[in-house]
Specification:
Number of strands: 7
Oligomer: single chain
GO biological process, one term: signal peptide processing
Strand content: 15-25%
CATH architecture of the largest domain: Ribbon
Family: Belongs to the peptidase S26B family.
Largest sheet: 7 strands, antiparallel
Number of domains: 2
Protein name: Signal peptidase complex catalytic subunit SEC11
Distance between the termini: 20 Å
Pfam families: Peptidase_S24
Membrane topology: Single-pass type II membrane protein
CATH class of the largest domain: Mainly Beta
Number of helices: 4
Helix content: 25-40%
Order of helices and strands: HHEEEEEEEHH
Length: 177
């Protein structure tokens, strides 16, 4: 298959059409993502479990669906996804303790189901509890192992670029009938 030969044979109008088609696919995906953010109230409505710390509830590669409605109180036993200052990747763990102050502020402690100790060692130095502002979302559903594609693409960047190149070439070279 001669990719560049096919591109040279394609007239300019066809090429513009294919590029616009590709741009529409990308913009549609972004619009769907932004729509999910609005509907779920979560800055990241879908996340992939990256470690085995939540086994047996969730395994590495499970795809989680999140919501983050601010009126809904956090309860012990819930699985939350949270960000900690100084860490780029959100963490998926279970709320094990709730600490409610007299003024109504709620703080909570998390732990991975498969971990021996709570998460205080993961929080920023001097932080013993999480607050609502740290929560990215709460797990509402999952698809087992669907996120393994994401993990493979992160572990093997060349695979990711090859897959993107093949998908881009397919969209650009696909002929409409």
């Amino acid at each position: 298959m001669d990719l560049f030969g096919d591109l040279r044979r394609m007239n300019k109008r066809q090429l513009y059409y294919q590029v616009l088609n590709f741009a529409m696919i990308v913009s549609s995906a972004l619009m769907i993502w932004k729509g999910l953010i609005v509907i779920t109230g979560s800055e990241s409505p879908i996340v992939v479990v990256l470690s085995g710390s939540m086994e047996p509830a969730f395994h590495r590669g499970d795809l989680l669906f999140l919501t983050n409605f601010h009126d809904d109180p956090i309860r012990a036993g819930e699985i939350v996804v949270f960000k900690v200052e100084g860490r780029d990747i959100p963490i998926v763990h279970r709320v094990i303790k709730i600490h409610e102050k007299e003024n109504g502020n709620i703080k909570f402690l998390t732990k991975g189901d498969n971990n021996e100790v709570d998460d205080r060692g993961l929080y920023k130095e001097g932080q013993n509890w999480l607050e609502k502002k740290d929560v990215v979302g709460r797990a509402r559903g999952f698809l087992p192992y669907v996120g393994m594609v994401t993990i493979i693409m992160n572990d093997y960047p060349k695979f990711k670029y090859a897959l993107l190149a093949v998908m881009g070439a397919y969209v650009l070279l696909k002929r409409e009938s």
